[in-house]
Amino acid sequence: MHRPNDTPKSRKILRTAAVSLIKHDYVARGVESHPRCQLVVVTDDPHVPDWVHQRNQEFADSRGIPYVRDVERALREFQVDVAVVSSEAERHCDLSIRAACMGIHVIQDKPMSTQLAECDRLVEAVERNHVKFLLWNRNLLPAVIHATEVVKSGAIGAPYAVHCDFYFSKDAGPPKGTRQPGDPPINWLEFQRAAHADGSDGGVGREPMGELAIEGIYPLACIQQITGAEFEQAFARTAAVFHQANADNGVEDLASVSLCLSGGITASVAIGRIGAASHPDIGEIRISVLGSEGAIVFAEARPEVGIYYRGQPAKEFRHRRVAGDNDFLLVDNFVKAIDNDGDTLLNARQGRSITATIEAALRSAKSGRAEVVAPPAILQHS
Amino acid sequence: MMRLAFSGGDGSGATGLAEAALRIADLSVTVVAHPDAVRRHQAAAVLSAGLTASSLSAALDRYGGEFDAVMIESTSSGLPDDVASAAAAGKHILLAFPLLDSVVAAERIITACRQSDVRLMLCQTARFRPSQIAVRQVLESGKLGEPALLRIHAWDSQSLTSQRETRDVAAAAGAGGTRPAWPRLTEQLDLAMGMFGGWPSELYVLGRQEAGRSRSEWPRHVQVHLGFGEGRMALISVASEALPEGERYATVSLIASAGAAYADDFDQTQLVYRSGCARAFKTSEGTAAVTHELREFAEAVRQKRDPAVGGNAGIHALHLTDLAWQALSTGQPVQTKGLQHASPQ
Question: Residue B249 and residue A240: Cβ atoms within 8 Å?
C-alpha cells in the first residue's frame, strides 16, 4: 500500500543474510515475514563442524538461496544490508561484530552472549560503525504492548514494583534423577543438538547455560520496557530441579531473582523450564506491576483460544496464542530505525545491560550476596 | 458438640463466625463477652448466643460451665492474662494470628495453654482459603513432587491495611515489640514456611523507599526472597495501600519437581460490562476459609491433637518477620544458620 510519506529510501529492500542458522530458525523466519527484508544468502565460517554446515545448507536449500562458507565474502559479495545472527550463543557477538564492522545492521538471536566482555565489544562496534542492532525479544506481543501502553499512559501512576513469572513447561531430556550408576553425564552440546528436532535447543553451544542465561532476556526486557529503568543490583537463588542435563552440567533450570532498578524501583523474576507436566500450554507467563495509583496484572499469552477434541495428542497445547504479530513488529521497528536513523526496541546497550544483570544474578546465586550489575565498559558514543 | 464463647473484637468478626458456625453441626456459640454493651448484644444477636458478659473473666465466673472453648479477638496487652485465666479453667483457645506480634507474649500464651493441656489454635485464615487447601492437599499427596519455587502476591487497599496496622502496631508496642507490625506480611511468611514445611536458610528483602515515610515503618511494598534448603526458594510480594478502596489481591503459584499449582493470578475475577470500561469482579469464596478454620479447631479439640496452626507457627512467623525487618534495614541477605527453629506446625 502506498503511503504518502514513503520515500524511495524507505521502500528499499534490505538484502539480508542469515549468518549461522544452527539453532531453531525462528529469527530468520521472523525477519523474512517483513516485506522489506529479503533473504539473499546463508553464511557461516568454514571451520564450523559438519553438522552446522548441514543445518545451514538445509535452510538455504529450503529458500533456494546460496550457502557460502565464508562470512565476510558472503556479506560483501551479496551486498548485504542486514545480518541475522542465530549461531551458538558463544559465537553470537563475534559474528555480529564482524558484520557491524562491515557497516551492516544486525538482528541477533538471544542470549546476547555467554561472556559480558563480548557484549561490551559488540556495543563498541555497533556504536562506532553507526549501525542498527536489535536483540530478539517478546516485547511486541499483544499483551505486552497493551500493558506497556497502560503503564505509559499513567493509568496506574508511576510503576514501582514489577514481577514476572516466566515458565516454559517444556521437557528437556530425561528427568533429574534418572541417570543410572556408571552412566556418563549428559554432554551439553550433544543434548542440545538432539533437542533441535522439537525447537527446544535455545541453549545450543559448547558452554552449558541455565534457564536464566537462555531465557532471562525475555522477562528482563519486558521489565525494562515497562519501567524504563536501569538494572542496578541482583540477588538470586538457582537450582537444577527438573532435568538431568541441567544437573549434570551444573546449570539451573529454576531461578528466582530480586532486582533493584534505578529510581528505587524493585522487580522480581521467577523463571524455569519446569517440565511438560507442569502446565497444559507453553507455560505460565504473567506480569504484575504496582504503581503509585494502582496495579496491573496481565498474561503474556493473551489473546488465546482454547481448543479441545477427542483423541487430542497429550503434548498438543490446549490453548493457542492468536493474533501474535511479534515477529513482524520487531522487524518493522528495526527497519524504521534504519530508515529514520532512530533507535531499535532493544539495542546493543540495552541487551548488554540485560546480560550484565543475568551475570550479576548468577554471581549472586553462588556468593549468597546481592551483586551489583557491572556497568558498561565504554561510555555512550556521541 | 463444642460450645464456643466469643470475646472482644470490634464486632466485625462475629458475622463471619456466625456464618461459619451455621455450617458446622457440632459447634455453637453460647456466650459473648465484650465491655461495650451495644456491641456485646449486637454480637450475641448475630451469633444467636443466649448469654453475655462484660469481660472474659466475668464470662468465666458466671458461665464457665456453658462453654468449652473461647475465641478471643482482643489484641490488648492483657491478652496473655486472659488466655491464662481461660486455659486454667480448661477452655481451649482460638486467637488471632500472629499472637500479638510479640514473641515474649506469644511464649507466655503457649506456656499457659500447654500447662493446662488445652488446645491453642491461631486464626491464620489465609491457610484455610479453599485455594490454599487445594494446593497443600495435592502437595501433601506427593503428586507434585517436592516444592521448589513458591510465589505469593498479597496486595491490599488503604482501608484494609490501615485497620490492621493501627490495631497491631499498637498491640506490638504495648507488648514490647521492637519493630512495626505488619500482620499481612507475617501471614505470608507463615504460608511459605507451611508450604515448605520448615524454616528458611536465608532471606533478602527489598522495599520501596518513600519520601515522607519513616524508616521505622514498613514501606508500602516489600519483596521478600526466601531460600530454603536444597535449592528451594520463595518470592513474596506484599503491598499495603496499593489498590483501590476495599480491594484485595492474593495469588499463589507453586512450582514443584513433578508439577505445579496456580491459584490464581487473576484472583478468580469475572467480567462485567457497564457504561465505561469493562470491570473485573471477584468471585467470593464466601465463608469457606473461616468454616474450614473453625472445623479444624473443633476437630483438633475433639481428637485431642495439635491443631493445624498452633502457637509455634505464630512464634516462627514472628521470628521470620523480625528477620525480614533486619534484612530490609541492612539491605543485605540474612543467613539464618544458628537461628534454627523447629519445623513450624
Answer: no
Identity of the residue numbered A354 = I
> Which set of grid coordinates corresponds to residue B7?
470475646
Contacts 24+ apart (CB under 8 A), B173-176: B174/B76, B174/B77, B175/B77, B175/B100, B175/B101, B175/B102, B175/B104, B175/B105, B176/B102, B176/B104, B176/B105
Sequence spans of domains, chain B: 2-125, 126-335
Contacts of A274 in chain B (CB under 8 A): 255, 260
Could you tell me the end-to-end alpha-carbon distance of chain A, in angstroms, rounded to an integer? 37
B263 touches chain A (CB under 8 A): no
Angle at A106 between CA A105 and CA A108, to 5 degrees: 170
Among B339, B159, B147, CA closest to B242: B159
* Residue B202 sits at the chain A interface (C-beta within 8 Å): yes
Which contiguous run of DSSP H or E holds residue A187? none
* Structural contact between residues A364 and A370, judged by C-beta atoms closer than 8 angstroms: yes
Residues of A in contact with B208 (CB under 8 A): 160-161, 264, 266
Q: How far apart are alpha carbons A139 and A137 in whole angstroms?
A: 6
Cis peptide before A159 (omega within 30 of 0): no
Would you call A372 an interface residue with chain B, using a CB distance cutoff of 8 Å?
Answer: no
Domains of chain A, each with CATH number or no CATH? 14-135 (3.40.50.720), 142-324 (3.30.360.10)
Q: Mutate which of A253, A256, A296 to disrupt the B interface (most B C-beta within 10 Å)?
A: A256
Kindly report the nearest CA distance between residue A264 and chain B, in angstroms. Answer: 6
Q: What angle do CA A313, A254, A271 make, to 5 degrees?
A: 80
So what's the pLDDT on residue A378?
A: 79
CB contact under 8 A, B235 and A290: no
Exposure letters A1-25 (e unless 16+ CB within 10 A, then b)? eeeeeeeeeeeeebbbbbbbbbbbb
Chain B residues near residue A240 by CB distance under 8 angstroms? 231
Walk across the sheet containing B120-123 and list its strands: B51-53, B27-33, B2-7, B69-72, B92-96, B120-123
**Hunting for cell 553470537 — which residue is that?**
A92
**CB contact burial A161-175 (16+ within 10 A = b; e otherwise):** bbbbbbbbbbbbbeb
pLDDT higher at A172 or A232: A232
Residue B269 — pLDDT band, cuts 50, 70, 90?
A: confident
Q: What is the DSSP code string of B77-124?
A: TTHHHHHHHHHHTT-EEEEETTGGG-HHHHHHHHHHHHHHT--EEEE-
The mean pLDDT value for B110-137 works out to 95
Burial class of residue A189 in the structure, from the number of CB atoms within 10 Å of its CB (0-12 exposed, 13-18 middle, 19+ buried) = middle
Percentage of residues in chain A with pLDDT exceeding 90?
86
DSSP 8-state symbol, B202: E
Residue B340 banded pLDDT, cuts 50, 70, 90: low
Min Cα separation A228/chain B (Å): 17
Q: Tell me the C-alpha distance between A97 and A203, whole Å.
A: 21
- Which segments of B179-258 are extended strands (E)? 202-207, 221-227, 233-243, 248-256
| Whether B8 contacts B33, CB under 8 Å | yes
Per-residue pLDDT, averaged over B156-183, amounts to 58
Q: What is the CATH number of domain B2-125?
A: 3.40.50.720
The answer to whether A50 touches A12, Cβ cutoff 8 Å, is no
A169, A272, A288 member nearest B149 (Cβ): A272
Nearest CB among B237, B253, B333 relative to A268 is that of B237
What count of residues does chain B have?
Answer: 345
CATH number for the domain whose boundaries are B126-335: 3.30.360.10
